[in-house]
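Below is a typical protein record.
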Amino acid sequence: MADEFKAILISRDEAKVQSVDVVTLTPDDLMDGDVDIAVEATTVNYKDGLAITGRSPVVRRWPMIPGIDLAGTVIRSRNEAWTPGDRVVLNGWGVGEVHYGAYAGRARLKGEWLVPLPQAFTPLQAMAIGTAGYTAMLCVLALERAGLVPSHGPVIVTGAAGGVGSVAVALLARLGWHVVASTGRPQEADYLKGLGAAEILDRAELSEPGKPLGKERWIAGVDAVGSHTLANVLAQTSRGGAVAACGLAQGMDLPTSVAPFILRGVSLLGVDSVMAPRALRLEAWDRLARDLDPARLDAMTTRIGFDEIVETAHAIVDGRVRGRVAVDMA
């Protein structure tokens, strides 16, 4: 049938044993929504890896089509904001967690979840950015709103060789920051310097329990790691600085003290990309179109096809994926 399409479906049996299958669906199988989209590109984020591997309780409705990001073309709309032919981007909103997601040829979504695909990007480029890159931009915006500028001092990016980290390094470097890139993969030093990092820091310096306060080393930070790493970043942030926190690759805990906050006036800025309001999403994508060097985006991107999604999901959770992954759904 012409309307049939392939999808990745995650299921769980009564014993809560998870399975992942490639299935054939029709539009009648999709969930409620007022806009139907032909999915042209998607990506594999760390969260997508957790969903497919089952290593963290990302999925909250069963069965589920995973995939929290997509770019594509509207093919049917009952929402006055969108008409067939419009090119759109989706990030978050619980898609791939509680609502059928991007790893399918077609998606049915709520129109208010969508933003226009910036003219600067193809669908594949937008997904090379994806939630990871969009989150990195939200972190940059948070630091700017805290009044921080490159002349104030260096900025540290943790998990720098990952998706959020790679885009954050590229963005901050282009904006004039002296970027300290923290990574546990020393073999990626040349890659990170190619994105604009000025210094490479071994993550071992930050990943173990540390002191409540340390030497002031940076004025700002973008952290996608959490746990002891974030605690040590805060402890070594200069007076009046701020750290934008957006991830938990090391853990959800934060074993810190009040010392950085009350003795140095450091701010911890929480960044939520999943439920960010539409105005902030539009600002982030507008800034990405202006501030992200296309050559550096290309340098950090691996392109794969639909059939490689599941394998890549396992690799990203195992720490074997560098930078960003763009999935060509064609």
